[in-house]
Structure formats: C-alpha cells, structure tokens
Design brief:
Blueprint: E1 3-6, E2 12-20, H1 25-32, H2 38-46, E3 57-61, E4 68-77, H3 84-100, E5 105-109, H4 115-127, E6 146-150, H5 154-179, H6 187-200, E7 204-209, H7 211-217, H8 220-226, E8 234-242, E9 251-261, H9 281-295, E10 300-311, E11 323-325, E12 331-333, H10 341-356, E13 360-365, H11 370-375, E14 380-384, H12 387-400, E15 404-406, H13 411-415, E16 424-425, H14 436-445, E17 453-457, E18 463-464, E19 475-476, H15 481-492
Parallel strand pairs: 1-6, 2-4, 2-5, 5-6, 9-10, 9-13, 12-16, 13-17, 14-15
Antiparallel strand pairs: 3-4, 7-8, 8-10, 11-12, 14-17, 18-19
Helix pairs in contact: 1-2, 3-4, 4-5, 5-9, 6-9, 8-10, 9-15, 12-15
The protein binds ligand BES and zinc ion (ZN) (2 copies).
Length: 493
C-alpha cells in the first residue's frame, strides 16, 4: 500500500510539515525538527522568512544522516480559515518539490482530523503524469513508493487513508482512460476495458449490447450517431451487487462514451477538435467508480451503464435535418450532428429505466461546451428532479471539494426541446434560448419517465487546458469520480 499511517515519524526521503500561522510556530516546528537543521529554521522564523502564511514554503536539507533527507515546511495560514479546498491547494504545491528532489518516500505530519491524508491525496493527484506515450524513460512520471501520515491517532486515520488512496486510484484510473487517444480507445477498446474490470474484480456482471442487437431493439438515436463509424456502437452494463439492503433497487450511473467527437457533418473546427478523445470522460468515470466499489467491497447495488459510440463522418453519417425514432418511440430531428451526446444518452437512459428499473439515474457526460460559459472549468453544473438526490450530490461535492452548482430545469425551456415537424429536436439554436447546459438537461429529461434523475455536465470540468489547476496537471481531470462515489454511498446508506 502506498498510503500508510504511523504513530512515530517514519524515515523518509522527505518530511512534510504543514504549519498554521501562529505565535507558537517555532515551538510547533521544534517538536518535529529535532533531527533536521533547526538552526536554519530558527533563523528563518526570526527573520520572518517563514511565518506559516498560506502557501509559504521553506525547504531544508538535513546535513547529517537523519531520518529524512529533506524537510518542507508548508504554511497553511490561519487555522480557522483552513478548509479542505485550502488543504488541496497546499498539497498541490508539494508535487513539484517532490518531483524535483526525486523523493520516493514521504512522511507527512498530520495537523488535525484527516488533513494529512488529504494533503497526500492532493500531492499525488497534482503529481500525476500521463506517460503512456512517452518513450524516454527519463521523461516518465515520478512515482512515489510510500506516503506515511504520522499522527498519534494513526489507527483512527488508517481507514480514511485506505479509502482516500483508493479514491485517488479511481480518479487516476479514470484519467488514464480519458487521456488514452481515440486510436487506442475506441468503442471496442472501451468494451474490452469493461470486460477486464468484470473479470478482475468481484461481484460484477457484464452485459454487452452490440450494433446488431441495438438495431433490433430500435435504438434509433444511438444508432444515428454510431453508424458514422465502423467501430461500435455499444451499450455496456456493469452490474455491481454485493449484499445490498433487502428490496433495494439498483442505482444507475450512466456515462457518455463518445470515444471521439468530430462533430459529424457539423464538423468541429481546428482548435476545438484535437482533444475530443475527452468526450468519453463520463463513461470512463463510470468504469472508475464500478472498479472502486468492488475494490472496497462496497455494500450495495449499482449498475454502471456506458453508451459507447464514435461521432465520425462517413457515408452512413446522419445528416442535419434528418429525423429518427428513438428507443422510447419519440421522434428526434437532428438539427446539429455535434449534439450527439444527448442522442446516445437518450436511448441509454430510456433503456436503463425500462429494463433495469433503478431507484435513481445519474448521467455523467461531457455534454456541452456551454458548461464552461455557465460555470467555467472548476464547477460542474447539474440538473436534478429529486430533492434527496440533489442533497446527496451537493453534500458529496463539499465533502470531496469537487464543486457543483444546480441549474434549473425551467419549464418553459424544457418545452423548447419540442420540435415543429418532430416530437423533439436535438439542438435549440434556432429558438434562441442560449441556456445550452439546461437545454442539454431538458433534452435528457424527456427520456426519463419518473425515476429520480440527475445529470452532471462535465463539459467544463473533465479536462484541464492549463497546468495551474488544483490537484491536476494538463489533460483529463478525473473530476466527479470521487463526487459520485460519495453520492452512491449516501444513497445506499
Ligand atoms: N462533446 C461536446 C461538448 C464539449 C465541448 C465537451 C468541448 C468538452 C469540451 C458536445 O458533443 C457538443 O459538441 N455539444 C454542442 C451542443 C450544441 C451543438 C447544441 C456544444 O456544446 O456546442
Ligand atoms: Zn458534439
Ligand atoms: Zn460530444
């Protein structure tokens, strides 16, 4: 195990000392730094070089052969103002010094509660590198061998450490899948990945619906997109069942798995198309979660459903203006072939509700670019039809610091998904509503009958374009993996 907890301060390449700003700062540090270069620390504090202000760091090198080679003091600022978000920010700051000093073993002094565990999680998430395609071994990502969180109450922290380590593992697993490019992770590869999970992990049953089955079942909306490629489409269900409470229905988590979104005949322009292998992030999140549930022997019943297709251009591609019939019998006019996510999800959701009869449906999808217009790159907009589900999502978001914000399924907007010559249209640009995220949610809602439903639009949060994001380098973020795990825990309690 990478995360350990210990009562004593363990030997390590690097010792991390998180410090609140306080009058007794030196005494605090002295307690821990007996074997490090205390002289330097005292003078740094006397000269007000290090005061424990938020984000301040001081790196010290042990001049003798002590328990650790390097110590880093990291300021956490005012203790009263220090929340999980700040801890994650501070943890992220540690990733670079760890990498630059090539430290392999880390010891962290815990401050209070589970802060030390979260610091460890944050530094690992920030230090992640997607190096599958890097051939030079020197350029591969820096890997830690152990992280020990040191606290007098080590025993009490151990469960949290295990849980968070596996949640970090699930997030990283999701990132690896999302980052894998479309030539290596098409619909068929996604199916193979799901099969591998079902084989390696316990209590998971897999069911695969391929093109011919989907066609026979009348999945017109999914087929409309899937036909554009030779690969796919598929619907894959991964049913995880382990000693659930009696008479409970399963929770369904549905992921958008567009392994490449070219936009179709409404082709995406340069600058917007290159990263469209990210469009399977919802499905990859679902895979990461199902894997986590089994890994942690979670008690409950959860079905992961993947809607898998590629949105390409070919002689079988759907045309703007075409009208198709969806699985639930509704007709959809395809006004924009780039609004493909809602098409595949329409049938996947309707199928899930009809055949799997879940207690709740949570859809996770990179559905709109408009998500960034609404809430930027850090906050996931969501829409929900049920109070209990809303509360579970909002509370979970706070607990793992993955912010969400509810947008309304405003009735007049929901009306506007209706068509003139069809029941529904897949794009509302012609009616000038602009509320792109809500229109996506409104469209999906039209395919749910009465099951409590939530839709998370990860269009802004699935991918980091810059390197300054908390807990995340450039590329796939793995956002909403932890959030949805927490939500499932609450709904299953
Ligand atoms: N996959 C995109 C949304 C997206 C864009 C996610 C950028 C992440 C980053 C989705 O399929 C799409 O193209 N949506 C359209 C919908 C519109 C045509 C109604 C959009 O957002 O423009
Ligand atoms: Zn699209
Ligand atoms: Zn898409």
């Amino acid at each position: 195990m990478l995360f350990k907890t210990s009562v004593k301060i363990e030997s390590a390449d690097m010792l991390i000392l998180p410090i609140y700003k306080s009058k007794t700062i030196l005494a605090e540090i002295k307690k821990h730094l007996s074997k490090c270069n205390l002289q330097e620390t005292t003078s740094a504090i006397d000269r007000k070089i290090f005061e424990g202000g938020f984000g301040q760091t001081l790196m010290l090198c042990n001049q003798k052969n002590g328990k650790y080679k390097i110590a880093i003091l990291i300021g956490l600022g005012d203790e009263k103002k220090c929340d999980l978000h700040k801890i994650k920010k501070a943890g992220s700051m540690l990733a670079q010094p760890i990498e630059k000093t090539k430290s392999k073993t880390i010891a962290i002094i815990n401050t209070k509660n589970d802060e030390g565990v979260w610091l460890a999680a944050a530094m690992i998430l920030k230090g992640y590198k997607f190096d599958k395609y890097i051939t030079n071994p020197k350029k591969k990502g820096h890997k830690l061998t152990s992280v020990t969180i040191c606290d007098k109450n080590a025993k009490a922290l151990a469960a949290k450490a295990t849980e968070l380590q596996t949640m970090v593992g699930a997030t990283i697993y999701t990132r690896d899948l999302v980052n894998t490019t479309s030539n290596d992770m098409g619909p068929k590869n996604m199916v193979e990945t799901a099969k591998k999970i079902a084989k390696e992990f316990k209590n998971i049953k897999i069911n695969i619906l391929d093109r011919s089955k989907l066609e026979k079942m009348g999945m017109g909306a999914l087929m409309a997109i899937g036909k554009s490629s030779q690969d796919g489409p598929y619907i894959v269900t991964l049913e995880y069942k382990n000693d659930p409470k009696p008479n409970t229905k399963p929770i369904a988590i549905i992921g958008k798995g567009i392994t490449f979104d070219s936009g179709g005949l409404n082709l995406k322009p340069t600058g917007h198309i290159e990263t469209m292998h990210l469009d399977k992030a919802g499905a990859c999140t679902v895979l990461g979660i199902i894997r986590w549930l089994s890994q942690n022997n979670f008690k409950g019943h959860v079905i992961g459903v993947l809607g898998l297709a590629e949105n390409l251009i070919g002689s079988k591609s759907i045309r703007p203006g075409d009208i198709i019939t969806a699985y639930n019998g509704k007709t959809i006019e395809i006004l924009n072939t780039d609004a493909e996510g809602r098409m595949i999800l329409a049938d996947t959701i309707a199928y899930t509700e009809k055949e799997l009869k879940p207690s709740h449906i949570i859809s996770i999808a990179t559905l709109t670019g408009a998500a960034t217009v609404a809430l930027g790159y850090d906050i996931t907009p969501f829409m929900v039809t049920d109070k209990t589900l809303k509360k579970a999502i909002e509370e979970s978001a706070k607990e793992v610091d993955e912010p969400v914000w509810e947008l309304p399924l405003y009735e007049d907007y929901c009306e506007k998904v209706k068509g003139t010559i069809s029941d529904i249209t897949n794009s509302s640009k012609h009616v000038n509503i602009r509320a792109g995220v809500i229109m996506g949610g409104a469209f999906l809602k039209a395919f749910v009958k009465n099951t409590p439903f939530a839709h998370l639009d990860m269009g802004g949060t699935a991918w980091a374009e810059t390197t300054d994001k908390i807990c995340c380098p450039y590329g796939a973020t793995g956002a909403n993996t932890m959030l949805t795990i927490e939500t499932i825990k609450k709904l299953s309690a």
